[in-house]
Amino acid sequence: AMKNKLLWILTAIPLIVTGIVLPAFPEQVPMHYDIYGNIDRWGSKYEQLIFPIMILAFSVFWHFFCNYYRKKAEKLGDSKEGREAASNGKVVYVAAVGTTLMFTVMNFVFLLMAYNGAKSAAEVASIDINAIIGVMMGLLLMVTGNYMPKTGRNPVIGFRTSKTMASDENWAKANRFAGKVFMVSGALTIVLCLLFGGITAMSLFLGILFADVVICLVYAAKL
Known about the structure:
- The protein is mainly alpha-helical.
- The chain is built from 6 helices and 2 strands, in the order H-E-E-H-H-H-H-H.
- It has a two-stranded antiparallel sheet with strand order 1-2.
- The chain is flat and about 60 Å long.
- The two termini are about 40 Å apart.
């Protein structure tokens, strides 16, 4: 399917770009940072290939996940279950493309940090990775929130508790509510990460995510 081609194109970009730029890198580059952005480990430039390979492994998982729902939708046709499978397949596809795109951006940031750090013999990261990851996670929350109300009741994706899985009505209400919460929280995360940055950005994101889960669980319990 054309959709899987887009997933594989996005997956290939980090591997190809990393392979092209690595020869220009110094042999030793910064490979790990503590929570404050201080470089605490240097390693071979070829370790930069680990993350693109991890992205490839994730995409293999997403590929099979997307195909599972597509085949289920084709098999069940225009029944209620078939329409739900098709809808869930679309949501899984958006999640696959969204996370792969996020990982691709992060790979470029990691390459830039490694190159800048090696060239300047720095002791601190040249880019605030916590702020960037926070913004990326905020965007992912917004995309997830937008698509959660579009899922049918299923055991894999969406806001699942014993109450929400009990009926289609409960599922629809809970996922509409959770979708709104996630979209607002995603926007708030982006603003706070851009304002504060550093470890504060990551702490705020984790705090917001925890609050989201609690709020949604309380709402679902009252259904």
